[in-house]
Amino acid sequence: MDVKLFIEDLRSRFPNEPEYLQAVEEVVNSIADVYSQYPAFDRVNLLERLCIPDRIYTFRVSWVDDNGRVRNNMGYRVQHNNAIGPYKGGIRFHSSVNLSILKFLAFEQTFKNSLTTLAMGGAKGGSDFSPRGKSDMEIMRFCQAFVNELYRHIGPDTDVPAGDIGVGGREVGYMFGWYKKMTREFTGTFTGKGLDFGGSLIRPEATGYGNVYFLQNMLATRDIDVKDKRVAISGSGNVALYTAEKLLSLGAKVISFSDSDGSIVVPEGITQEQFEEIFDLKTLYRGRISEFAEKHPDVCKYFPRERPWKHVEKVDIAMPSATQNELDGDDARALLAAGCFAVSEGANMPSTPEAIAEFQKARILYAPGKAANAGGVSVSGLEMAQNAQMMHWTAEEVDNRLRDIMADIHTQCVKYGTDEDGYVNYVRGANTAGFLKVARAMMAQGVV
Ligand code: NDP
Ligand code: 2IT
Q1: Pocket lined around ligand 2, Cβ cut-off 6 Å
Q2: How far is it, in rounded angstroms, from Cα 134 to Cα 116?
Q3: Which atom of ligand 1 is nearest the CA belonging to 240?
Q4: What are the tens digits of pLDDT across the range 216-274?
Q5: How far, in Å, CA of 353 to CA of 329, rounded?
Q6: What's the N-to-C CA distance of the chain in angstroms?
Q7: Helix locations, 151-232, DSSP H
Q8: Residue of the CA atom closest to atom 4 of ligand 1
Q9: b/e for 407-419, b at 16 or more Cβ within 10 A?
Q10: Is 112 an annotated catalytic residue?
Q11: pTM (two decimals)
Q12: Cα 440 to the chain's mean position, in Å?
């Protein structure tokens, strides 16, 4: 298989989808060798079938705002691959959402879900609707209009959506409510549901906690403890906040957060009390991170429209947890110069290819999102299992399973990603392990 020709062909067919092509190129480059070891794969053009989504639904979402104006957004669901289980993946509501972004996310999700060892295929959906500044009733009407189109295409054994950027417990609740009304069925078709109607304990925390567990597994390979380490985080949403919570409980220092307006850096590390203030600011009041800086100019610097990476002067670990391509080559060089020796991605594809190359050249610990942030979808899988059994597991049980899954993903990365000199290339490891399971299932199921 000629990787260059393969990518060029996809580029000419999908020329306006840079994020999708970026995600595919990374995976194809890193699995090319293992793909060639199995000539049977290429005889059935497996790679192309794995890279092009099974199907995509695109629809208009019309809803009425609080002023009685009719507004129109685009809605999408990309069902990428269901070789190993029902389609599974989050829904993103953000003004930047387009097909390229959802195709990259659904592609990545397929490999991530395979790594979890649970029976879940890959999907992603969303809308260019921006929840920012919308009232609760506007959010509800939008969610209902979105599901009015989507409900025909999803189901507990077909496709199970969940949250992502701009979609949390509130939005999942509204979507689930409308889905239930349209289908007249109470099923586990969404995950991230409220605890009173089938949600799993630890699902809100799972992505952030899981990323810290993955980080601990990586650090253990070099006999390093996370305690007292200085950790730069980006974002201040679901993933960033629960990453910080777990880090603080382990004695690490959290030195930054961001949102789409700018970043804060707290050189001494935030206290537990300050964390709780930020948590309430972002979750209860849906405020901006700049508001924390305004209240605490003595401990904190604010950098409007900037990402944190160039402003953390001394840093051990970076955990990008906002969005794709939020850490570029210059940011990576700045982090390395500031002493960074580990990067564990909470977001999906936050580091650009140039940044990843810098980290790997410097031989630091670098974990791609599809391994490090798989805790969220893992606990979604555990929520599906609990719903199917009509059971509710304790927080301890879910958390223990999450720890085991993250440790297992780490083991898979080491198995398939260890270089001759002992350096673990977590990108190759995650992509290869994720790929092989899906590929074997696709081979067994014929050309479908
Ligand atoms: P949230 O909506 O809760 O938070 C997103 C955070 O990132 C906010 O602080 C937001 O700022 C910021 N952000 C979003 N878009 C941009 C942008 N274009 N530029 C700068 N900042 C931005 O989402 P999550 O925490 O759930 O998701 C964060 C990342 O983690 C995403 O990449 C998501 O795909 C990934 N992820 C999420 C999982 C989950 O379970 N939720 C699971 C695995 C991965 P603002 O408030 O200003 O919009
Ligand atoms: O990117 C992701 O893994 C998620 N947004 C979570 C998906 C899920 O189905 O829980």
Answers
A1: 88-90, 109, 112, 162, 164, 191, 348, 376-377, 380
A2: 35
A3: 25
A4: 999 999 999 999 999 999 999 999 999 999 999 999 999 999 999 999 999 999 999 99
A5: 8
A6: 21
A7: 169-183, 203-220
A8: 237
A9: ebbbebbbebbbe
A10: no
A11: 0.98
A12: 25
